[in-house]
Amino acid sequence: MIASFRLDRATGRSHRAWAAAIGLALIVLLGFAARVYHLDFAELAGDEGFSYVFIQRSYGQMISDTLTMREPHPVGSYFLQKAWVSLAGISEFALRFSSVWFGVLAIALAWRFARELGFSRGTALAAAALMALGPFAVFYSREMRMYSMLLALTLASTLLMWMLLHRNSWGIVPAYVAASWLALQMHYYAGFVFVAQNLFVFSSAVFLPSACLRASAPLRFTAAVDRHIVSAPLARWVAAQVMLLALSLPWLIVARDVLVNYHGAAGINLSPAEALTAWFSAFLFGPNVTDGRPALAAFGAALIAAAFVKLLVGAPRMRRQAWLLALYLFVPLAIAWAASLNRPIFSERYSIAALAPFQLLLAIAVVHRAQFRSPALVGQIAIGRLASAALGIALVAVTLAGLRSYQRSGVVDGHPRVWHGFIRVVNRYAGALPAERIRIALNFPDPVFTYYHQRYLPDGPAFITLPYRAGDAEGAQQVAEELKMVGVERVLLQIVDSFWDGQGIAASALAREFVQVEETYSGRWTVKIYGRLDPAALRPFGVAFAGGPSLEAAHARVDMRGRLVEVYLRWNGARAPLNGAEKLFIHISRSDDPAALVGQRDEPLAPDAPHLTLADGRSVHAYGVRLNEDLPPGRYDVRIGIYDPSRDGMPRLRTGDGRDALVIASFEVR
Predict the structure, then answer these.
(1) What is the dihedral of CA 338, 343, 348, 351, to 10 degrees?
(2) What is the rounded CA–CA span in Å between residue 311 and residue 322?
(3) Which tens digit of pLDDT belongs to each residue from 148-182?
């Protein structure tokens, strides 16, 4: 009978182990699916562009640029991403996929960490599920940055720390050192976790020395045994820390200026309560949470408190786990908050390493069954389990609502695809001239465009940032002059509302050397098209208008793709009009039917009309005329003339040979 009972127990454990393994596999697959779903729909954004630009450099150049540019992140993630894209190629999907892998790794590590700390399979599965589907973890596992790498590697480091202390093997030391060193190469804030680890190890050695043994070991020891128990793990731990410091110190010394003197541009300072509200609400609902932050944070805090109550009133062996999780969660958050006061910059993503203990504590609050020792508490177990079930349902609802909100956002579904809209504008207006005569100008230095320029405009016009430095009006003017000197005849200026060009410096600088001939909208940004002319393109006319100015020369540049005609006119005597009321008209119509207009523009014939000073020192007036989108095939003329709207009938001024309009160019639509 005893043998049969033991067999049944063993069979039950085996079945539970298989069920847990299958459950974990499903959770990992769900986490992977959540991370790759529409991974390439959304465009690169924000710092993803910086990562892309950085990995275009050689490995040596990345190191030197990190130091000279005082880049606040080490080079580990850039090295890994460069190696990855050399194998996988370059696309939004490929660029982000290295982060996906680390995000999936974090799911498996969350399970192993919970099990290694002695929690049940159910608790470990809950922790893995939260890591798999929690919107905060999913978000940063889909971004071409280092945050999912930081999460996975600091979790691996803490797991190996626990194993190092509880397994009598020096073989774990190099594994711990490798994981910790890699974590520090991904983000300097990994060091905050190492502070928590050391606080845990040394405080445990002082206050809970016998807790270094496995839970199944005897609870009574001699002093000699206690010293041996404490000294062996401490020796391994100190050796690991010395090795980690030896490996990390050379880089930290070289990069010390970044560590000490870097100050962010965000200028955000939060109180401790505001910071905890931001962290807990984001950890629960995702980084884009806007509404209900205090309520979400309070819910998270209630779950954390419930978890610690379960751990502290339950089995004595769980007190050490509670102490570890408290340090692992709150020490990195506290140091990150203090660091934000000095930089000053605050972002929830910098504290992603604290997500693992946060989620494990949530799992403990709703799944873990405390082993109550007091008979007086036994009657309250049923109520406690009902409360845990209610909290669990609420946690599942919040997690899935946050994930759904994120998956339905433009961050995932890719709408609007703003850079693609800008590329379409560039393609529309960049075909009228050779690429070397066109420039794309961004009035904000967004590195994301580097990727889209290289992918979609590899043979297209080059792009610049104007102004090169924030608020540099003088420098912007020099750039505009340089563009003129090298023969640029069209500039496409993207207008982004930002501090960089808050006073319209870019537009003002270009207006001195170019004339705005068109303005359009790319889906998010205004795009201004500026034109300029090579003097050799002017066609002489020498036609006088009766009692008015003479047209010395003219040129019409027809851009069929852009549906735009640029008209350049050089007048003789334009500064002495008849009475000041005269206006210039530009008509574009079928050659066989001048009344069938497909584009027109009327402007005052005034000395302050838009004009350029060309290389020969003489000025021309410049205008842009839009064409109808649906031009039927045929031959079209560009006609100009002068009329007086102040007189009855608005009569036109005639040329010396009696014409009321002058054809300056013709073109064919096929």
Answers:
(1) -60
(2) 6
(3) 999 999 999 999 999 999 988 899 999 999 999 99
